[in-house]
Design a protein that fits this description.
two-stranded antiparallel ribbon, globular, five-stranded antiparallel sheet, alpha+beta
Length: about 350
């Protein structure tokens, strides 16, 4: 979901916070990050973050996220603190857009694949504790994620999608040959998975409540106060080894080229498994379950083909294709090592 132009300015932000939260604002700073319009607010007493979501964000999704956050807060997981309005709600609406207010989180963020060993293992600890706490949360559903990401039918459909995109790469695309080769490799790997992977295995894996988009991008670090997890909009039931594999690949600096440090990966999964019991199928097919999902995306290639300035998205697409190749080539080795945990 793209960021929509904000309906807010300094005048109406001050009015909104005064009328709905009884907060007197004396400084407003726009923060250009994420998929919402974000403002840092300073009052005499405290600092806050105000988020104005795009029109596609529903009240139900905001209620879901605030309920999860409040639940995890009571389980001593560091999460954002949402502020109730005068009418007792954790959100308000302004010109058909949802607005939330939360306490400002003092800390810093990290980019993908910039974490050293200690930061990498810390991520596994946080994921483990958070997932352990979420096991007791009622209300999360699978939301069709198995069918959408991990089914034979979804992989069949994405092969058609990749073949179509491959045929539409612009003649003047400066990375035409590279993109076509990447897509061809992804198509061939997908066909091999279709012919040789038993998709019924997924139903034997541990499927449990989780964040749904957990990675280094959802962490705010504070070396004195601890690390906060944000953005629970996509929380759902899912194959939990997928969340572990994905989050490892996005934080470890040694995985930045799509080639994993298998010793660190084993340590990551071992740390995570201190909190969530993983079964034989989770460990034996960890590489394949992540590969099936990640190979299904053409995100980045299409965007760059439409706009040659989107080099960052192309880099991300190339990273994930390199990761696909690595998982495909080393799946037996990865699974064998994880089975020893």
């Amino acid at each position: 979901m793209g960021i929509q132009k904000s309906n807010l300015n300094e005048t109406n932000i001050k009015q909104i916070l005064k009328e709905n939260y009884e907060i007197e604002v004396y400084q407003i700073e726009k923060i250009n990050k994420g998929t919402a319009n974000i403002f840092k607010i300073k009052s005499k007493e405290k600092e806050y973050i105000l988020k104005e979501f795009s029109q596609g964000r529903t009240e139900e999704s905001v209620i879901k996220e605030t309920n999860i956050i409040n639940f995890l807060k009571n389980k001593n997981i560091k999460v954002p603190v949402y502020i109730k309005s005068k009418n007792g709600s954790f959100y308000i609406k302004y010109e058909n857009r949802i607005i939330i207010l939360q306490e400002y989180i003092d800390g810093y963020t990290m980019e993908n694949n910039t974490g050293d060993y200690n930061k990498t293992i810390e991520s596994a600890t946080i994921l483990g504790k958070m997932t352990e706490a979420l096991k007791e949360y009622n209300g999360l559903k699978e939301d069709g994620i198995i069918e959408k990401w991990f089914s034979k039918e979804s992989l069949e459909n994405v092969i058609i999608k990749m073949m179509d995109l491959k045929s539409k790469i612009n003649e003047d695309n400066p990375f035409k040959v590279k993109i076509e080769k990447d897509l061809e490799d992804k198509i061939n790997i997908s066909k091999d998975l279709l012919n040789n992977f038993n998709f019924d295995i997924i139903n034997k894996m541990t499927i449990t409540n989780s964040h749904g988009d957990y990675s280094v991008q959802q962490l705010i670090y504070n070396d004195k106060k601890g690390t906060t997890v944000i953005d629970f909009e996509t929380a759902k039931k899912l194959p939990i080894i997928w969340e572990a594999m994905r989050s490892y690949s996005y934080i470890d600096v040694e995985a930045k080229n799509g080639e994993l440090n298998l010793n660190t990966l084993v340590d990551y999964v071992k740390e995570f498994s201190k909190y969530i019991k993983l079964n034989e199928y989770d460990l034996k097919y960890a590489a394949e379950i992540y590969l099936i999902q990640i190979i299904s995306s053409v995100f980045g290639y299409k965007q760059f083909n439409d706009d040659y300035t989107k080099n960052d998205l192309l880099d991300f697409a190339i990273f994930r294709t390199n990761l696909c190749r690595y998982l495909y080539k080393h799946s037996n080795e990865i699974n064998s090592l994880l089975l020893q945990i």
